[in-house]
Structure formats: structure tokens, C-alpha cells
């Protein structure tokens, strides 16, 4: 019922997977032949590969390792580079990818290059969560006792916050960013947007100065070259460039304030 | 036995969904160190999928005649009176406080023009009492709690073990739980952890059915392991099939009840064999069958009822193109309303290529939620033991639970607790929409205090974890290592992925919307065959030096087979129809014989479930027929 097979489509296609047996071992490619099926996404392809565990040369091999959970593009787990483009593999439909004649009936799956590989397509994104900790990405409430409701909020303000709070920490924006590398300190667009999210909450704003200190230091907003690759690949359409611009404005004010404080 | 030293108490929380995170918050705030285990970074837990909202009585509804009591009554009726009443009383009365707390944490709830929290309709109620954040409420709530736990983590009060899989509870010579055995999913290291209490908040068991609306880690594996170690399962036969999901190759993606709460309508063409595009079928030739049969609740009858009606329409030959599909139509709604549903409409469009704003969605029921799970206990509220409230403010006996009593949320094993979807409490034979998120957070915040008190010594059983012999832990680590080695050495011919798909198909056919004795007996025989085949399993990846998902999957498949057996046996034994458990051969509710909790215990000798029943008292609300047509 879902995306139907075009009648002329080949019955099978090739999947080239960039594999790596462990953190420190070398990467290599392995090819698999997979049968087309209706409503097929990359997750079903990887499941089919796991079930057969046989590569295109007919040799037995180990199932490909990858990270996934929700299968509906909301948990952020399953990010990988598919035919050169970083995206969630659960919402990547085979029919759509192979429609492109340049694909030549082949799908290439690679792990994200900006994070250390755990195994095959599974990468370690703990840096993203560490950044959230450094930026104190939370609303500092007094505790969980019953102290009544939070502050009132206009629908417009809610919409502005909601748009950022749908960020699922997938890392697509970081993979696409020319300034974010495996070993530099740049926090990247996702963390900057999250800092703006918490700065815009009345209680969250009590930590605003601390967050701006982090964004002013090495690896902060000034590392961004404004290439805007991040916003183009974000699956949740998080308004990243607006957030970076806002952070820039807040930092200017913050820097002036600091100058006065030093006197 | 009282505990000697309380200062060094440590609690292990397994699971970082809404239930686990709120438990970690409560326990750490109560001053007890928490070790939090999860198979995924907690921010990626399955709770992130929840879409529609979270129920609580609120001022607007209250002034229209709604109350916490009524919320309780709806929950009990929805669950067809299979839940204990004091916990449901407590949960529904806490609900408004929970919403306030989430609000303070900064959860972006939708707002009215004036800036108050907006509300939407949901199933099983005639009042607006569902709070929401777009159509990604679970994600927003999970993030709100995740952020607070990150704050506790930064303060050194919570230690996270992400990408660790719980394998087995450690039970001491006094029969009390004193820790866990777990495995690092990246290095494959198997290790024991000491804890004075353990909370299992590992979510539902949808993967037992192959394809469901749940996430891939929702295997029920952790609950099944506790069950094998002696914990009871409560009502495992109560599995909710959600009426509206998109059938898919790898999973069935939910189209939230909020689509109907916001005005979406379910229909089929009046003509069998209709071939026109849905937009070309005139109103008069559409059958809005839920609205016709249930003029009061319309499309918002409880889920089991809507599911059966849709299922019957398909069986009668009215499915779209004869296929198992009906229309869920939101095309007539104003743009502003559609925007509130953006997240789920986006999912539909991404996976089907069709724009649900323009074309009615094609949906069908799918396995969605497990009402059943680990059996837990509680202490009912009693005005006699209430030393805090003023005499005139005291509630009547059984109106709620005693806050902080050590056994709230505890399984039959002392020190082993179960919260959230992993447990059986609150939802009886059917869960009402938007009550799950509530029960998960309530468990963590309310019963979490019980865990903290127990770990510090209240009603504590046996010696503290720190004083237990090392051999206790080493022995269980050896047991788990041996299990893995056995899978590797087995070198059988059966394929775990194939076997899982077959298990899912069998369970979906035998134990979902319509059950019969004959079909369930067939499933019993099939499960025996699957177990025999599992003994001949082979794993394609035998390396234990680093990440091996095949071994982990094969191991949990064994646990799923054991959980499936409990579901099937409990379904056979319950010879009545109640809520989601619909027996075609016993279509009526039988309160004389079955107004009771199913308790499944694992018989180690046979490896099978044994079923017994525990009667349920009715201290607050009497039994009445579950009628949603017109009352
Ligand atoms: C698509 C969908 C939409 C829903 N919408 C709503 C809604 O609108 N309103 C509502 O009230 N309810 C809704 N529900 C139900 C609700 O989302 C779930 O019941 C709830 O989120 C379960 O939360 P939990 O904390 O119990 O477990 P989960 O969120 O499932 O978390 C389980 C945790 O346990 C961990 N875990 C599991 N096994 C192990 C193991 N062996 N070792 C270590 N860790 C383990 C996982 O890593 C995870 O952190 C929905 C459900 C689905 C499927
Ligand atoms: S704007 Fe460019 S440099 Fe800046 S974060 Fe985005 S991709 Fe990176
Ligand atoms: S901002 Fe977008 S791309 Fe970046 S982590 Fe969040 S959701 Fe992913
Ligand atoms: S599996 Fe959750 S985003 Fe793809």
C-alpha cells in the first residue's frame, strides 16, 4: 500500500556498507544484495542483511551493527550517511533513494565521520550530551515538591520554544558542519540552539550568563563560519541559523556587560 | 530486620523512560545515590514516541463539572474494573500536581491565547482533560525530565550507565533484591552492581508481537528475566491494540488518538469494493461507523472498542480495497488545528508520501501497549496511620496510598520495584489514552519515595548490599556469562531473526483483537515448537570482544518466548471478555469467576507459566456494566 514499486524497478539492489570491527580497527566496505520490497526503509534493509548474514559474494559474514530505536524519526538514534547525505535511516525510503539515476541501483551506508565509531554504523555521540551538561541545558527548578504552576506563556513564545525543543540530538547538523571536527572543541549548532532554548525560559534564564560564558569561550559561537549547512540537513527543521544569530546578539550584550563588571 | 547504616544506601534504576527518570529524580532528591541503567541514552528512550498528551483534572474542566474522582472513575471503567482502586485514586488526584511540576521544568505545553495550558479531548472522557505539547508530548515530557536528571548527574547524585543491558536481578539469601547483573553493549563486559533496591522501569513488550507501535528495545526482556527469577507477572494477557496505526514493513507507526481528539473521523465507504479516490466519495456514501454506533463518545470510545469495530468492518468486507485498512480523516479540520498535529502528520507523510492534510490517512489497528507486567503491591491510605494531615483533612480509608510506604510499587520480591509500563498497576484491562504518561511519572514521583525509604532502612529485608558476600555477585555473573557462551557454542541452524518474525506473526494472529480457545491452544503448540527450535539456534556473530548485537538479540528472543507463553496461558485461562481481552467464545464479562488479577508465576522445572488469580476488592466504586453507547 505504501510507496509502491515502480514496475520497471530491478528486483534487487546493492547495499555497500562501510564497516569497522572495533573502535581502533580499519574501515572497509562490504556489499550486500537485497531484494526490493514495498514500504522498504533502510532499517528493513539492515534487518534483511542481518537475517541472511551473507554478502554479495555469497560469503557468510556478521550482521551489520547499527543504532536505532523508535523507527519513526523521533529518538535520534539511527543517523548515518546514506549515499553521501547525512540523515535518519528509519525515515530514508529505498524507493526514494533509488529513484535518483545517479544512485545506479546502489545504496551506500557509512557511519557519521565526525564521531568515533563504536562498530560499523554505530558511532559514539556522547560529546553531544556532554555539551548539554556544560551548557547547563536545564531549567533550574527549586526541586520537585508541589510549588504550583510554571510561568504563563504566550502561544507565540511557546511555538518559538517548541520548534527548538523537537531537537532529537541526532547530530546531522554536526556531521554537515564544516567547522565541527572530530577533535576540535566547537559545540556546534545543536548545542547553541539548546542554550538559546533555555535562555528564553523565564526560570531557565537565571543561568543565561553561565551559558553565554561557555559560548564565548573556545569552541563557542565564534567558531561558526555561518556556512548554514546545519539547517539544511536538520530532519526536524530546527531554526538553527536564527538560534546562532540570536546567540551572537546575546554574546555582544554579554561581552559589554562583562567589560563593565571588570571595572 | 532494620538496616545498620543508611548513609551509604544506593539505588539502581533500570530504564530511563519517563518512569525511570522520574524515579531517579525523586530518589536522588531524597538524598540517595542513584545508578541509572539504560540500553539507549536515556534521552532516546521509547517514551519519546508518545504523541497525544497527558491527562489531569484542571480548572476549566473542574468548573464544568469534572473532578479527580471522575478521572479515577473513567480510568476504572475504561480498565473494566481490573485495577486496584486505591492506586488509581492516588494517581488521578496527583495528576494536576504532576502537570504543574512539568510546567515548572519548562515543558512547552501548548497555550491558550491568554497563556494558560491548552487542553484537548481524548478517549473515554466527555471532558477536555488532556494536556499536550503539539503532537510530540512524550518527547517533550521526556526531555523535561532528562534535563533535570542531567542536572542531578552534573551534581554527582545520579550516575548514568547508558548502553548497558540489564540481565538479571541479584537476590540474596533472604530473598531480597540487592543489585543487578548487566552487560556493556559496546565492550560486552558482564558485571554485577550492588544496590539496596532496584527499580525495573523498562517499558512494554511490543516486540513479542514482532511489529507494534513500540520501539525496538521494547522486548519485555527485563520483566521476563525478573519473572524467571521469581517475580510474578500481573495480567500479562492484557495487551492493548491501538485502533489507528500505519501498517509498515519494520513497525506499525502510530497515528495518535489526538487526531480524533482534535476532530478526526474514522470511516469506510458504504459500498463494498469501492474504487473511487476517497476525496471523490460523497458524504452520503461514507460510513462513519463509530459516530453512528456511539453517538455520545463518537470516535473517542476506549481503544479496545474502536479497535474491534474497525476489525469487524474489515472482516465484513468494508476495508479499503478489501484490505485491512480504514480511513482516518482530518482533511476537513482548520489549518490551525492541523498545525497542532504537525508531528504525526509529518510522520505519515514521510513514510507514505501522501499528505494527510489533503488525503484521508489509511490506518489499521496495531499492538500498542501492555497493561500487564510485573505484579506490584501497595499500602492503601488509612486515616489511622495518617499522622500528618489535620483530622478534618484526612481522607477515608482506601482513598489513595500511604505516601512513602516501603511496598508501594514493589514486586513480590522485597527490594525489587517495577514502575511505568513494565508494571501491571493502574490500567486494568484497557488503558485510556493519555493515562500512560501520567502513570509512568506518578510511579516515579510517588512510589519513588517508597524506594528511597526502603533503601534507607524502612522495612528493609536482609543485609545491605555493601555487606553481601562477593560470591553472590560472582555466581550470577558466571551464570550470565555461561548463557552467552552457550549461545555461541550452540552452532545451531535456526535463525533468530526468522524465528522472531514467526513468533510475532503467531502472537498477532492468536492473542490480539479476537481470541478463542481453539486458536490459543494452537498458539500454545506453536510456542512449544518455537522453544524447541530456539534450542537449536545459531548466531552469525560469535565475537565477544566487542559490540555484538546478534548475541544480545538472540538472548532476548529466548526471554520473549517465555513472556509469550505467559500471555498465551493467561489468555487461555481467562474464560471471559473484559476490556482488551476479547474472547469470541466467552463474550461477556464474568465477575463471579474472573473479577481478579491474573498472577503468572514461572515454573523453573517446566519453563512454563502457572496461572492463579487474586481477587480484587472494590472499596471506592462498585462494579457496573462497561457501556459507552448511550447512558
Ligand atoms: C507511538 C506511541 C504513542 C504513545 N502516546 C501516548 C500518549 O499520547 N499518552 C500516553 O499517556 N501514553 C502514550 N503512549 C504510551 C507511553 O508512551 C508508554 O507507555 C510510556 O512512555 C512508557 O514509559 P516507560 O518509562 O515505562 O518506559 P520506556 O519509555 O519504554 O523506557 C524504557 C527504558 O528502559 C530501558 N530498558 C529496557 N530494557 C532494558 C534492559 N534490559 N536493560 C537496561 N535498560 C532497559 C530503555 O533503554 C528505556 O530507557 C504511547 C506509546 C506509543 C508506542
Ligand atoms: S552555520 Fe555552518 S559553521 Fe555554523 S554551525 Fe551551521 S554548519 Fe556549522
Ligand atoms: S538540531 Fe536538528 S540536526 Fe541537529 S541534532 Fe537537533 S534535530 Fe538533529
Ligand atoms: S530510529 Fe529513532 S530516529 Fe530513526
Structural description of this entry:
The complex is a heterodimer of chains A (263) and B (631). Helix content of chain A is 35%, strand content 14%. The radius of gyration of chain A is 22 Å and the shape is elongated. In chain A, helix 7 (208-216) crosses helix 9 (240-262). Chain A has two domains: 12-123, Ubiquitin-like (UB roll), CATH 3.10.20; 126-261, Alpha-helical ferredoxin (Fumarate Reductase Iron-sulfur Protein, Chain B, domain 2), CATH 1.10.1060. In chain A, the strands form two sheets. Chain A has a five-stranded mixed β-sheet. In chain A, strands 6-7 form a two-stranded antiparallel ribbon. In chain A, strand 6 and strand 7 (122-123) form a beta hairpin. Residues 1-7 of chain A have low confidence and may be disordered. Chain A has helices spanning 42-52, 94-99, 126-134, 155-165, 172-176, 188-199, 208-216, 229-233, 240-262, and strands spanning 12-20, 27-35, 79-82, 85-88, 106-110, 117-119, 122-123. By secondary structure, chain A is an alpha+beta fold. Chain A contains nine helices and seven strands, in the order ββαββαβββααααααα. Chain B is an alpha+beta fold and 631 residues long. Chain B has three domains: 10-238 and 371-467, FAD/NAD(P)-binding domain (3-Layer(bba) Sandwich), CATH 3.50.50; 243-365, Alpha-Beta Complex (Flavocytochrome C3, Chain A, domain 1); 470-589, Methane Monooxygenase Hydroxylase, Chain G, domain 1 (Up-down Bundle), CATH 1.20.58.100. Helices cover 34% and strands 16% of the residues of chain B. Chain B has 17 helices and 21 strands. Chain B has helices at residues 18-29, 59-62, 68-78, 85-104, 137-154, 221-228, 258-261, 289-293, 303-315, 335-340, 342-352, 436-456, 470-490, 496-510, 517-534, 549-573, 591-594; strands at residues 10-14, 33-38, 54-55, 119-120, 130-131, 158-162, 164-171, 177-184, 190-194, 197-200, 233-234, 239-246, 253-254, 265-269, 286-287, 326-329, 361-370, 373-374, 416-418, 596-603, 608-615. In chain B, the strands form five sheets. In chain B, strands 13-12-17-16-14-15 form a six-stranded antiparallel β-sheet. In chain B, helix 1 (18-29) runs parallel beside helix 12 (436-456) and helix 14 (496-510) packs antiparallel against helix 15. The longest helix of chain B has 25 residues, at 549-573. Chain B is globular and about 75 Å long. Chain B starts with 9 loop residues before the first strand and ends in a 16-residue tail after the last strand. Chains A and B meet through helix 1, helix 3 and helix 4 of A and helix 1, helix 4, helix 5, strand 13 and helix 11 of B. The structure holds flavin-adenine dinucleotide, iron/sulfur cluster (2 copies) and FE2/S2 (inorganic) cluster. One iron/sulfur cluster binds at residues 176-180, 188-189, 224-230, 244 of chain A. The site of one iron/sulfur cluster (SF4) has 13 residues of chain A, from helix 5 and helix 6.
Amino acid at each position: 500500500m505504501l510507496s509502491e514499486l515502480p514496475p520497471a524497478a530491478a528486483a534487487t539492489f546493492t547495499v555497500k556498507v562501510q564497516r569497522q570491527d572495533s573502535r581502533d580497527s580499519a574501515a572497509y566496505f562490504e556489499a550486500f544484495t537485497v531484494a526490493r520490497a514495498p514500504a522498504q526503509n533502510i532499517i528493513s534493509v539492515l534487518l534483511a542483511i542481518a537475517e541472511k548474514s551473507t554478502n554479495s559474494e555469497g560469503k557468510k559474514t556478521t550482521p551489520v551493527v547499527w543504532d536505532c530505536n523508535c523507527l519513526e524519526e523521533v529518538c535520534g538514534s539511527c543517523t548515518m550517511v546514506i549515499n553521501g547525505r547525512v540523515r535518519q535511516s528509519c525515515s530514508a525510503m529505498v524507493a526514494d533513494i533509488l529513484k535518483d539515476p545517479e544512485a545506479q541501483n546502489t545504496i551506500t551506508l557509512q557511519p557519521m565521520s565526525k564521531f568515533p565509531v563504536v562498530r560499523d554504523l554505530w558511532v559514539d555521540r556522547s560529546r553531544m550530551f556532554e555539551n548539554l551538561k556544560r551548557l547547563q541545558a536545564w531549567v533550574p527548578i527549586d526541586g520537585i515538591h508541589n510549588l504550583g504552576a510554571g510561568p504563563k506563556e504566550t502561544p507565540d513564545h511557546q511555538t518559538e520554544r517548541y520548534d527548538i525543543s523537537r531537537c532529537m540530538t541526532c547530530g546531522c547538523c554536526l556531521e554537515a558542519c564544516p567547522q565541527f571536527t572530530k577533535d576540535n572543541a566547537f559545540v556546534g549548532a545543536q548545542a547553541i540552539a539548546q542554550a538559546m532554548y533555555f535562555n528564553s525560559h523565564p526560570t531557565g534564564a537565571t543561568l543565561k550568563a553561565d551559558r553565554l560564558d561557555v559560548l564565548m569561550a573556545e569552541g563557542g559561537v565564534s567558531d561558526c563560519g555561518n556556512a548554514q549547512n546545519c539547517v539544511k540537513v536538520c530532519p526536524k527543521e530546527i531554526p538553527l541559523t536564527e538560534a546562532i544569530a540570536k546567540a551572537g546578539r546575546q554574546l555582544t550584550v554579554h561581552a559589554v556587560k562583562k567589560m563593565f563588571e571588570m571595572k | 530486620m532494620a538496616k545498620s547504616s543508611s548513609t551509604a544506601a544506593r539505588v539502581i534504576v533500570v530504564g530511563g523512560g519517563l518512569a525511570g527518570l522520574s524515579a531517579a529524580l525523586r530518589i536522588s532528591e531524597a538524598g540517595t545515590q542513584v545508578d541509572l541503567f539504560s540500553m539507549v541514552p536515556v534521552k532516546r528512550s521509547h517514551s519519546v514516541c508518545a504523541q497525544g498528551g497527558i491527562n489531569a483534572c484542571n480548572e476549566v474542566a473542574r468548573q464544568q463539572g469534572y473532578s479527580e474522582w471522575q478521572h479515577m472513575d473513567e480510568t476504572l471503567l475504561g480498565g473494566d474494573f481490573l485495577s486496584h482502586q486505591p492506586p488509581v485514586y492516588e494517581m488521578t488526584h496527583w495528576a494536576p500536581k504532576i502537570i504543574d511540576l512539568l510546567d515548572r521544568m519548562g515543558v512547552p505545553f501548548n497555550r491558550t491565547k491568554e497563556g494558560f495550558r491548552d487542553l484537548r479531548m481524548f478517549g473515554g472522557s466527555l471532558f477536555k482533560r488532556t494536556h499536550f505539547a503539539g503532537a510530540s508530548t512524550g518527547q517533550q515530557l521526556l526531555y523535561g525530565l532528562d534535563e533535570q536528571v542531567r542536572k542531578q548527574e552534573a551534581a554527582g547524585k545520579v550516575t548514568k550507565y547508558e548502553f548497558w543491558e540489564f540481565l538479571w536481578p541479584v537476590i540474596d539469601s533472604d530473598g531480597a533484591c540487592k543489585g543487578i547483573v548487566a552487560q556493556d553493549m559496546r565492550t560486552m563486559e558482564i558485571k554485577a552492581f550492588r544496590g539496596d533496591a532496584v527499580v525495573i522501569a523498562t517499558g512494554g513488550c511490543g516486540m513479542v508481537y514482532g511489529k507494534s507501535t513500540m520501539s525496538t528495545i521494547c522486548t519485555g526482556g527485563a520483566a521476563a528475566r525478573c519473572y524467571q527469577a521469581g517475580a510474578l507477572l500481573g495480567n500479562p494477557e492484557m495487551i492493548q491494540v491501538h485502533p489507528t496505526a500505519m501498517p509498515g514493513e519494520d513497525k506499525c507507526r502510530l497515528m495518535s488518538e489526538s487526531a480524533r481528539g482534535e476532530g478526526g473521523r474514522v470511516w469506510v465507504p458504504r459500498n463494498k469494493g469501492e474504487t473511487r479516490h476517497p476525496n471523490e466519495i460523497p458524504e452520503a456514501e461514507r460510513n462513519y461507523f463509530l459516530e453512528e454506533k456511539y453517538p455520545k463518545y463518537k470516535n473517542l470510545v476506549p481503544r479496545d472498542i474502536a479497535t474491534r469495530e474497525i476489525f469487524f468492518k474489515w472482516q465484513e468486507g468494508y476495508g479499503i480495497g478489501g484490505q485491512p485498512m480504514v480511513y482516518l480523516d482530518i482533511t476537513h479540520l482548520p489549518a490551525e488545528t492541523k498545525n497542532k498535529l504537525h508531528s504525526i502528520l509529518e510522520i505519515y507523510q514521510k513514510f507514505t508520501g501522501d499528505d494527510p492534510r489533503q488525503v484521508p490517512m489509511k490506518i489499521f489497528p496495531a499492538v500498542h501497549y501492555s497493561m500487564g507486567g510485573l505484579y506490584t503491591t501497595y499500602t492503601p491510605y488509612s486515616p489511622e496511620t495518617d499522622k500528618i494531615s489535620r483530622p478534618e483533612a484526612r481522607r477515608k480509608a482506601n482513598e489513595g496510598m500511604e505516601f512513602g510506604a516501603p511496598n508501594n510499587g514493589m514486586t513480590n520480591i522485597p527490594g525489587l520495584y517495577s514502575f511505568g509500563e513494565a508494571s501491571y498497576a493502574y490500567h486494568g484491562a484497557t488503558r485510556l489514552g493519555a493515562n500512560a504518561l501520567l502513570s509512568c511519572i506518578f510511579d516515579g514521583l510517588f512510589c519513588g519515595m517508597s524506594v528511597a525509604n526502603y533503601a534507607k532502612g524502612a522495612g528493609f529485608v536482609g543485609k545491605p548490599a555493601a555487606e553481601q558476600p562477593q560470591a553472590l555477585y560472582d555466581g550470577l555473573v558466571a551464570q550470565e556469562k555461561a548463557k552467552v557462551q552457550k549461545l555461541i557454542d550452540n552452532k545451531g541452524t535456526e535463525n533468530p531473526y526468522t524465528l522472531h518474525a514467526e513468533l510475532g506473526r503467531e502472537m498477532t494472529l492468536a492473542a490480539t483483537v479476537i481470541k478463542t480457545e481453539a486458536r490459543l491452544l494452537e498458539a500454545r503448540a506453536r510456542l512449544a515448537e518455537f522453544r524447541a527450535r530456539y534450542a537449536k539456534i545459531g548466531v552469525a556473530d560469535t565475537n565477544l570482544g566487542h559490540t555484538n548485537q546478534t548475541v544480545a538479540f538472540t538472548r532476548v528472543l529466548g526471554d520473549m518466548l517465555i513472556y509469550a507463553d505467559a500471555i498465551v496461558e493467561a489468555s487461555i485461562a481467562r474464560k471471559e471478555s473484559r476490556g482488551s481481552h476479547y474472547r469470541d467464545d466467552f463474550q461477556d464479562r464474568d465477575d463471579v469467576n474472573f473479577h481478579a488479577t491474573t498472577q503468572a508465576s514461572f515454573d523453573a522445572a517446566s519453563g512454563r507459566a502457572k496461572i492463579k488469580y487474586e481477587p480484587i476488592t472494590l472499596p471506592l466504586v462498585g462494579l457496573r456494566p462497561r457501556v459507552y453507547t448511550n447512558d
